[in-house]
Amino acid sequence: MLRQWRSSIGHECLPASAPEKRNNDVIHRQHFINGAWAEALGWNETTVHDSATEQAIGKVVHATEPEVDTAVAAARSAYAGWSQLPLEARAAYVRAIADRLESHAETLSSGISAETGMPIKLVRRIQVQAPISAWRSTADAAARALAETQTGHSCIARVPVGVVAAITPWNYPLHQITGKLAAALMAGCTVVLKPSELAPTAAHVLGLAIEEAALPSGVVNIVFGDGSTGESLITHPQVDMVSFTGSTSVGRHIASVAGHALKRVALELGGKSASIALPEADPTLVARHAVGSCFLNSGQTCNAITRLLVPEDQYEQYRDLLKVAAEKMTLGDPRDETTRMGPLVSHEHRERVRSFLSEAAASGLDLISGGPDAPVPGLGYFVAPTIFGRVPVHARIAREEVFGPALAVLTYTSEDEALRIANDTEYGLAAAVWGDESRAMAIAQRMRAGQVDVNGAPFNPLAPFGGFGASGMGREGGIHGIAEFTELRAIQTPPTTKS
Ligand code: NAD
């Protein structure tokens, strides 16, 4: 049946680089291998949905093992030439990719907004312009990241790790691809990318941008597909490093596969990040910020602050302020420029998030706002922004990643208790502290997290991003993100003898 359907499409009339358009469906049935779009050989596919209308808007045909094999072989044969190019030549290609992405900005924005559910206004800034800037800033940072150093009679160089398998999730699709590809390319690696099957637009447009920038063939290859395509890639013997962003459970599996094969691995995984509001902090500012962070992209953000720790004697004040702030997060169509919060990515994900909320509500927690049964638009994978108060530290909603719009408010009576609660998690991706700056800094230094924001400091794309413990290993961003894709090599020359 599927075979019949496929052969009736008549794809030979289409330009090689365009996804097929048919009844509003975008069918990603080509993979970008060795500098050209190749017809997919497989029959398994995933349907991509518009998260606000629940309509099918595309299909992704999963790359098979032989296609992954061809993509890895292309990356392997491109490696010698690419890794030997002068740094400035690699930087020129990376900047050209940024320019080409910029020319596709509106296609990227509308596609990512439909797939993820994030309001288009935010997508343009956070999901499109910020990653495009990151392609450029990574090119700028490379000389510093890769500079040789001298220690005694050893010259120490950072050399590219080789062929990289990059596997990315759906929630910030271009951002996550950029964190891996721009850095790997600047380090001198070649890449096979497998983007999320739920949000393929960013990778597809990237393939077009790479083609337009005339990147040498095989330097970047893109295979679309689900976990089975990912599995073929991570187990491939010619892959030197796996750089993965996604769930902790898949990350654990990848770490074990990579460990067995002794491949390098970098893992950006989940989080359950805490914010500590010290007694002197401004509750209005903290509440507004907590709601903004937790509900950004409908809570589908790995470093979202999902636990807010407030002084016990200020709980009622925070309760009122949080309720007001959450009620301003109006739900709506992500295409509407005035929408503050859109739907979740899929039906399955909405059901998973709702089950967390139902369990928390049934356990008798103080429901400050939203909840599993709060009204939401009839169509679309919506969940109301939800806040539970006086959450005990052992509650599931205080310990597990929901990856939806759910904020847990916990109380503390001393600074030490606040720190103990904040650090009492298997994760360690992000954290925040609010209060007198020197006191907040002292607390920030005791937090077990890869990134700590003091008093609402904004995200810095040049700072290393990554986690402790179950949040993963390795860092992305700036010079540290480039260094992640290198090995160190020391070359010794005979020490000069002093006369
Ligand atoms: P996921 O783990 O289900 O999938 C991520 C990617 O891995 C997808 O491309 C998927 O197809 C692929 N995959 C699945 N099984 C695989 C296998 N066996 N081998 C190889 N690849 C496989 O995650 P998701 O649902 O796409 O994303 C949500 C998760 O990602 C959340 O847990 C979130 O916290 C995490 N995340 C972390 C960061 C970070 O930087 N730390 C950023 C964004 C998302």
The distinct ligands, each listed once, are: nicotinamide-adenine-dinucleotide
Instruction: Calculate the mean pLDDT score and round it.
Output: 94
CATH domain topology of the largest domain: Aldehyde Dehydrogenase, Chain A, domain 1
Whole-Å distance between the termini? 84 Å
What profile does the largest beta sheet have? Answer: 7 strands, mixed
| Widest sheet: strand ordering | 16-17-18-15-14-19-20
Report strand %: 15-25%
Low-confidence stretches: 1-24
CATH architectural arrangement of the largest domain:
3-Layer(aba) Sandwich
Q: State the secondary-structure class.
A: alpha/beta
Quick one: overall form?
globular
Radius of gyration: 23 Å
Helicity range: 25-40%
CATH class of the largest domain: Alpha Beta
User: How many helical stretches?
Assistant: 16
Number of extended strands: 22
Superfamily (CATH H level) name of the largest domain:
Aldehyde Dehydrogenase, Chain A, domain 1
Integer tally of domains: 2
